[in-house]
Specification:
The complex is a heterodimer.
Chain A: H1 5-9, H2 30-46, H3 54-80, H4 95-98, H5 100-120, H6 124-128, H7 134-167, H8 171-206, H9 210-235, H10 249-261, H11 268-273, H12 277-301
Helix pairs in contact in A: 2-7, 3-5, 3-7, 5-7, 5-8, 5-9, 7-8, 7-12, 8-9, 8-10, 8-12, 10-12
Chain B: E1 4-13, E2 20-30, E3 34-38, H1 45-52, E4 60-65, E5 68-69, H2 74-79, E6 81-84, H3 96-106, H4 111-124, H5 140-152, E7 158-162, H6 170-186, E8 190-195, H7 198-204, E9 207-212, E10 215-221, H8 222-225, E11 228-236, H9 240-249, E12 254-256, E13 261-265, H10 270-282, E14 286-293, H11 297-302
Classes of the chains: A mainly alpha, B alpha/beta.
């Protein structure tokens, strides 16, 4: 009784048409596969891949903006030669704090994208009625944003490192200069990506409406850092109160970079609070872990 | 082993005044086949499905699906069960192909198998070229098909369908019911269909579980719900009076029921020939002869000890 599919496809009203149902006897990879494929798919979606042209604009524009300083720095170095080596404003040591606003904007744009849609359109029901568990969903989304952000930040730092190696008069000296920076770059980037992503995802998980969650995230990063800095710098805070400095996300980032690379931080909240930068670095790690826990708990209870 | 078994299953949603009792000591065993779960809106159907999937914990009592306890083996149950929720659950910016393939992987299918199954299943539910367009532009009928496709894509052993014909026009509803019927009969997938529309349950299911106010009203085969009443309904284009008169003359009990319908008592097959002959002699256009049956509605209408029915019969 079955007509060829082309005949039916062309008809004006779509019709449910039997072309025979085939069962599936192949492998079922279960929960573990579900997690890894949700992770990779979400990572792609973070860059708008598979979600249409407009979804690509924000992530790629911001990735481009974080790349620009590194390219400029390497270019200046190459053109001006050794003489300006110490003058170049952007180095691997201060790169993360230099692009901190772009990091904040990347999270602002992509954290609501990753979580809000599934909540707004009740897609969670379809996820949670499958092999995937609720905790898996939270872990995969967190992992995806951390990886995406780390990727966006690694590439420019890699360019900076290569710039150091190849702009040096002798290659051996260049490598000698670049090599000790590799581990600090890896650690500081991963921790920074984790704590910025964690904050953004927790806010997005509790505020499904995109515009509101984006506003809340941007406020957390920009307004909170501004207010805290004013308090710390102008307020002459006494002992227990000066620890409000730890609420400044940019101060955490600066403390993290200073701890990993040594030297003196640029962030006034850190320097004026008189607190050891290592405490800020530890604060960044704590925020990364706590936000992950909050995210998991949120998805255990969320209605779906 | 029954497909689904529950024992004193109770679910109370917290809220003011003791909350809402959605399921009230429901004990039922459901065997494989196409089973209709029928009840008014708010009778506890959706709650029942969500407990079976392990998405919701019962307040007390227990349930098992495919021989697995929902409290302890929710994950394994969900791997082999397909669920079509009642409400809109589709992200508008993905295409049907991308969404269904992604969800197939969420059920544990490898990537290539997920893609193949997606193409198969979308064609099976009747989505063709439009499956490459974003779901945001789909009609209600197409959305329902996508929802059915995502429930079928991992070739489940049991399909849980919550109001699958919601929002469909009559022809879309016919197609959906037909598809459900075939899924259950030809492909060996057990189906539990929830509906508040008794007519749909009658058309599709072998077995009916009726719940009302969270309590089991009755669980029995459709045949026992809708046994023949021993009456034939004869429909003609015109001349119902003449036909009835002829049949009475021929010695049958017949009466006119509306301008074009005649009811004929039939204890055996003799009336069929008599009706045909009478219609032929008179030159009447005979449209159909149908055995009148009890209807599932009667269950809700006539149940004498139906305490929980107040206000639930929407």
């Amino acid at each position: 009784m079955a007509l060829p599919p082309d005949l039916v496809a062309g008809s004006a009203t779509g019709s449910i048409f039997d072309l025979g149902y085939r069962g599936y006897d192949g492998p079922r990879l279960g929960r573990r596969h579900a997690i890894s494929s949700l992770f990779t798919q979400s990572l792609k979606w973070t860059f708008g891949i598979g979600r249409g042209g407009r979804a690509k604009i924000a992530p790629f524009a911001l990735a481009g903006l974080t790349l620009l300083p590194a390219i400029l720095a390497v270019g200046i170095r190459a053109l001006a030669g050794q003489a300006t080596e110490r003058v170049t404003p952007i180095t691997p040591q201060n790169y993360l704090t230099f692009v901190q606003t772009f990091i904040a904007f990347f999270v602002t744009a992509q954290a609501p994208e990753l979580l809000g849609r599934d909540q707004r359109h009740h897609v969670l029901t379809l996820y949670f009625s499958r092999a995937l568990e609720r905790t898996d969903y939270a872990l995969a989304k967190y992992g995806a944003l951390v990886c995406a952000l780390a990727l966006v930040l690694f590439v420019p730092q890699l360019i900076l490192l290569l710039g150091i190696v190849f702009a040096s008069i002798d290659l051996g000296a260049g490598v000698g200069e670049a090599l000790p920076l590799v581990v600090p770059i890896l650690v500081s980037t991963v921790v920074a990506a984790a704590f910025f992503s964690g904050v953004g995802l927790v806010i997005a998980a509790f505020v499904p409406r995109r515009a509101f969650s984006a506003g809340a995230i941007v406020a957390t990063f920009l307004v909170l850092s501004g207010v805290v800095q004013v308090l710390v710098v102008q307020g002459r805070l006494r002992d227990p109160f000066r620890y409000v400095a730890l609420l400044d996300p940019y101060a955490l980032l600066d403390g993290l970079a200073t701890t990993m690379f040594g030297g003196v931080g640029r962030n006034a909240t850190v320097t004026r609070s008189g607190i050891d930068p290592a405490v800020f670095a530890a604060g960044a790690c704590v925020v990364a872990v706590v936000t992950l826990i909050v995210l998991v708990l949120r998805y255990r209870r969320i209605e779906a | 082993m029954p497909l689904i078994a529950t024992e004193n299953l109770t679910k109370r949603y917290p809220g003011p005044g003791g909350g809402v009792l959605a399921l009230d000591s429901l004990t039922v065993e459901i065997e494989p086949g196409i089973v209709g779960l029928v009840g008014a809106n708010g009778a506890g159907k959706s709650t029942f499905l969500r407990i079976l999937l392990g998405l919701l914990a019962p307040t007390s009592g227990r349930a098992s699906v495919l021989g697995l306890d929902t409290a302890t083996h929710g994950g394994r149950i969900r791997e082999r069960v397909g669920y079509m929720p009642e409400h809109d659950v589709l992200p508008p910016d993905l295409t049907a192909t991308d969404l269904v393939a992604h969800l197939a992987e969420m059920s544990g299918l490898p990537r290539t198998a997920a893609r193949e199954r997606t193409a198969d299943v979308l064609r099976h539910v009747g989505l063709f070229e439009e499956r490459y367009r974003p779901i945001g532009g789909y009609s209600t009928g197409m959305r329902q098909r996508v929802k059915l496709a995502q429930a079928l894509v991992h070739d489940p052993r049991l399909l849980l369908l919550d109001e699958p014909t919601n929002g469909l026009d009559p022809s879309g509803r016919d197609e959906m019911l037909d598809l459900i019927r075939r899924t259950g009969t030809e492909f060996g997938i057990a189906v539990l269909v929830c509906s508040h529309l008794l007519g749909e349950i009658e058309r599709v299911c072998d077995h009916v579980v009726a719940i009302d106010g969270g309590r089991l009203l009755r669980s029995a085969s459709l045949a026992s719900f809708t046994g023949r009443t021993g009456t034939l309904i004869v429909e003609v284009d015109e001349g119902a009076d003449d036909l009835a008169a002829d049949l009475v003359v021929a010695g049958f009990r017949a009466r006119v029921d509306g301008p074009r319908r005649v009811l004929v008592a039939a204890q055996d097959v003799r009336p069929f020939d008599a009706i045909r002959d009478a219609a032929a002699t008179r030159g009447l256009a005979l449209i159909r002869i149908e055995a009148a049956r009890h209807r599932v509605e009667d269950l809700f209408r006539d149940d004498p000890d139906d305490e929980g029915a107040d206000g639930t019969a929407a």
